[in-house]
Amino acid sequence: MSNQQATVAQRTDQQIAERKAKWFWVSLVVALLGLQLVIGGVAIKLATGDASAAIVPNYHQAALNWDQIHSERTAAKRLGWTVDLDVSNVADGRGMRAVQVSIADADGKPIDDLQVSADIYHHARAAEVQTVDMQPVGDAEYQVLAPMERSGLWQVDLNIRHEAQRITVQRTLERD
């Protein structure tokens, strides 16, 4: 083999090695960028798909209307009303629990002709708020079967309408 042939063979080997190195480094950079995109996609999915992380709806508006919200939350106490909430400890086969509310005035007399609804959610699934309308069952008692399958800590926000007044009563309770 002549010197010229050896030099050409050396250059060809160098060019092949350079091409392999270029492909390796370009592929590594592209793979790392792709990995970053996958990690970002997974992070977005986890951030938006988790029901335990919730944003309180209209939180800013509630903050702006704090006086009105506070008035609604303290109205039952101001009026001397007693609001008793009872949720059954056992859920049926469909995960429904009986929720019963009784409301009495300052003299202990039952208050009828109210519109009562409840916003119910499990603390571990705060994004899954369920609103149920309670039906009067007589003697100022209101009842509904609510989907409360999970055991644990539940939030029940009662929304009571009496004439033109809105009353909000919040209760946190634990169920097995």
Which SSEs are present, and which pair or pack?
Blueprint: H1 3-49, H2 59-64, H3 66-79, E1 82-87, E2 96-104, E3 115-122, E4 130-138, E5 141-147, E6 152-162, E7 165-175
Antiparallel strand pairs: 1-2, 2-5, 3-4, 3-6, 4-5, 6-7
Keywords: Membrane, Transmembrane, Transmembrane helix
Organism: Rosistilla carotiformis
Protein name: FixH
Radius of gyration (Å): 32 Å
Percentage of residues in DSSP E strands: 25-35%
Order of strands across the main sheet: 1-2-5-4-3-6-7
Please give the share of residues in helix: 25-40%
- CATH-scheme architecture of the largest domain: Sandwich
Oligomer: single chain
What count of structural domains? 2
Number of helices: 3
Average pLDDT reading: 87
Which blocks of ≥5 consecutive residues have pLDDT under 50? none
The top-level CATH class of the largest domain is Mainly Beta
Structural class, by secondary structure, is alpha+beta
Using the alpha-carbon principal axes, give the shape. Answer: rod-shaped
Per DSSP E runs of 2 or more residues, the count of β-strands stands at 7
Q: Which fold name fills CATH's third level, the topology of the largest domain?
A: Immunoglobulin-like
The biggest beta sheet reads: 7 strands, antiparallel
- Determine the N-to-C terminus distance: 88 Å
Q: In the CATH hierarchy, what is the superfamily of the largest domain?
A: Immunoglobulins
